[in-house]
Amino acid sequence: MTANTRPGTTGTFTIPSVVTDRPVWQVGVLAAVTGAVVTEVFALGARALGVPMKAASPGATEAQPIPVLGFAGGVLFWSVVGIVLAVALHRWARRPARTFAVTTVALTALSLVPPFLAPHTTTATQFVLAASHLVAAAVVIPVLTARLSR
To answer: What are phi and psi of 91, to 5 degrees?
Structure first.
């Protein structure tokens, strides 16, 4: 197994060629599943530390429990959007890796706001929700960006 390092496009991030040689959608699915597992483990760790995993939607009168695997489900759902974006950029963008990275980092930054607007949700839970967005992004975005830069 060899590795492709693309200094300048993805920094020192190294991704095995067995991954970069696959179609974008397959790399995206692998990244999404990995991101879902890592994010769910992060959330389970927060639960183990006593963070009350209850959140409310706008307009709700009380917080509802966030189910186990709820974080993984959210990562998988939104990763599908990212995979579709990556496939489209791979096909039509002049600089797909850069466009994908800029777009997804900006969307991740925007995604940090809603957790702090969730009513009837403890501050600890709000921070875990926001941090989970960063955890998922840290797994999924670099892998797809590296694949698109190939």
So the answer is: -80, -40
* Whether 132 contacts 139, CB under 8 Å: no
**What amino acid occupies position 131?**
A
Spatial contact of 40 and 145, defined as CB atoms under 8 Å apart = no
CA distance 31 to 41: 15
pLDDT in tens, 60-74: 899 999 999 999 999
Contact 145, 19 (CB under 8 A): no
Query: Residue 8 CB: number of other CB atoms within 10 A?
Result: 6
**What is the reported pTM?**
0.87
